[in-house]
Amino acid sequence: MKTRLLGKTPEELRAIAVEEGLPAFTGGQIAQWMYKKKVRSIDAMTNISKAGRERLSEKYEVGVSPVLSCMESSDGTRKYLLEVSCSHRSGLGAADSGEGLEKSAVEAVMIPDEDRRTLCVSSQAGCRMGCRFCMTGRQGFHGNLSAADIISQYIAVDESDDLTNTVFMGMGEPLDNYENVLRAITVLTEPWGFGWSPKRITLSSIGVLPNLRRFLDETRCHLAISLHDPLPAERAQIMPVQKAYPLQDVLDLIRQYDFSGQRRVSFEYTMFSGLNDDKVHADALIRLLRGMECRVNLIRFHKIPDFPYGTSPAPVMEMFRDRLCSAGITCTIRASRGEDIYAACGMLAGRHNNE
Predict the structure, then answer these.
(1) Mean pLDDT across the chain
(2) Using one digit for the tens of pLDDT, what is the confidence trace for 285-309?
(3) What's the confidence (pLDDT) of residue 65?
(4) What span, in angstroms and rounded, lies between the C-alpha atoms of 275 and 309?
(5) Residue 355: pLDDT band with limits 50, 70, 90
(6) DSSP 8-state class, residue 353
(7) Quick one: pLDDT at residue 95?
(8) Contact 70, 80 (CB under 8 A)
(9) Do the Cβ atoms of 121 and 108 come closer than 8 Å?
(10) What does the angle CA 111 – CA 302 – CA 242 come to, to the nearest 5 degrees?
(11) Sequential DSSP letters for 169-227
């Protein structure tokens, strides 16, 4: 099994080049080909000698994950199913060499919006957080994606050259696979990589401590916290992680950081009819977030099997929004995208045609 080059830094690529008897600067050339030109094979790296390419190809491959299928929504949203090699280990390189891995599939969603093309990427196959209202969480945990499999999602999609933004909101909890997610963010933001501004990247999390602190310290990317219920006992019923990482502890940590400038923090709030959508919940949310520079995104729930609640009616969502706005908290109702192809929030399951 060949080792994948995708996800590696120029320094690591230089070490590989030297080990294979090539000039050290070959490592920088490989990085250029993969991250700037987005080639999918070593043979396409034409400024490396043919003999050098042949030596590299004996042990290594670029390693872009193959696309298994693509579905397009009536609103233009596109959902890609990609084959990945998952590892239950979370360290760097855990899924690069192909040893002790399981084949699985994950989904990435491209969301068009006027001049924006946002890619929603997955960081794990399945998820171990167990949120009751989430299709990904319902399927259990199948493994962590390597940095190569995360970066592959930006290269494999048809819109690769047109992407403007990304959100780590696909399958999995990004902070539960933090080392590989951080490596992917590094590739996205470093000048030798994609060269994106951190302002183009948002990471969504239920608030895994202490990796949340690391993310806030080690990146300048935006943060979105999955909140969904301000009352601890109720939140624990639909989000078991509340017991391990209480929401109040997450908020206490976030308040230690400055979000008054270009970096933003937002809170995702899926609305369930009769569960978390009345004035009591709105007022509890106001008390939790009072004085914080933030935004609340209200999300229409997309019905899944074996979950007893439906989505809140539009007038209820508008009441909730207006109540937060009147208290000085910026609140919007997020437009639902891709529901007809099971690409909307909480609906990703990594299945062929959603069988």
Answers:
(1) 92
(2) 999 999 999 999 999 998 888 888 9
(3) 96
(4) 8
(5) very low
(6) G
(7) 47
(8) yes
(9) yes
(10) 100
(11) -SSS-GGGGHHHHHHHHHHHHSTTTT---GGGEEEEES--TTHHHHHHHH---EEEEE-
**Residue 337 identity (one-letter amino acid):** R
- Quick check: 169 and 120 in contact, CB under 8 A? yes
38-45 — which CB contacts under 8 Å span 24+ positions? Answer: 38/155, 38/160, 38/161, 40/64, 40/155, 42/5
| For helices 211-218 and 178-189, angle between their N-to-C axes, nearest 10 degrees | 10
Rg of the chain over Cα atoms, rounded to whole angstroms, equals 21
Catalytic residue among 120, 127, 331, 345: 345
Q: What is the pLDDT of residues 101-137, one digit of tens each?
A: 789 999 999 999 999 999 999 999 999 999 999 888 8
Strand-pairing partners, residue 102, are 86
Tens digits of residue pLDDT in 217-264: 999 999 999 999 999 999 999 999 999 999 999 999 999 999 988 899
Encoded amino acid at 239, one letter: M
The catalytically annotated residue of 61, 86, 107, 179 is 107
Q: Which of 261, 109, 123, 124 is nearest to 198 (CA)?
A: 261
Tens of pLDDT, residue by residue over 55-66, are 999 999 999 999
In the chain, what is the straight-line distance between the N-terminal and C-terminal CA atoms, in Å? Answer: 31
Q: What is the pTM of this model?
A: 0.93
Positive or negative torsion for Cα 77, 152, 350, 345:
negative
| pLDDT single digits (tens) 156-182 | 999 999 999 999 999 999 999 999 999
The interaxial angle of helices 147-156 and 178-189, nearest 10 deg, is: 40
> Is-catalytic flag, 107?
yes
Q: Which domains does the chain have, with CATH numbers?
A: 3-61 (1.10.150.530), 67-354 (3.20.20.70)
CB atoms within 10 A of CB 141: 19
Q: How far is CA 304 from CA 126, 127, 237, 250, in A?
A: 16, 16, 17, 28
In tens, the pLDDT along 7-22 reads 999 999 999 999 999 9
Q: What's the rounded Cα separation, in Å, for the pair 125 and 63?
A: 18
